[in-house]
Amino acid sequence: MIGGIDVEVHWKSIKNLHVGVYPPDGRVRVAAPTAVSLDAVRRAVLTRMAWVRRQQARFLTQERQSKRLYRSGETHYVWGRPLRLEVVEWNRRKHKIAVLGNDRLSMNSPLNSSRDQRATWMAAWRRAELRMVSAPRSC
Fold it and tell me: pTM of this prediction?
């Protein structure tokens, strides 16, 4: 705890001391050479405290994606494009996900499927899409 802020300190075999502030919550991390004392780390952080607080304030004002509920109307990004999710429940036991046109993502799911199941299916679908694009191509 330095200046009222929790600071994570890592001593490494490096030449210079580095202070970093990381999103989403403004976590402060210091990478310090092994020869540097804790007092020197404390002084370095205190001299950069104005910068640290500015960075933390900036992270707090940045927009974050809301938690996904996997319901119709949500926007999901596929390959950097925003697509509107359309969830259709059907009587089959399996699910199906497909991109429709340039602006829609369709998810057919079994009746009474949970948010966690839909999230798992979406993650698996994204991995499969990535594998298709990144698969080695034969000449």
Answer: 0.56
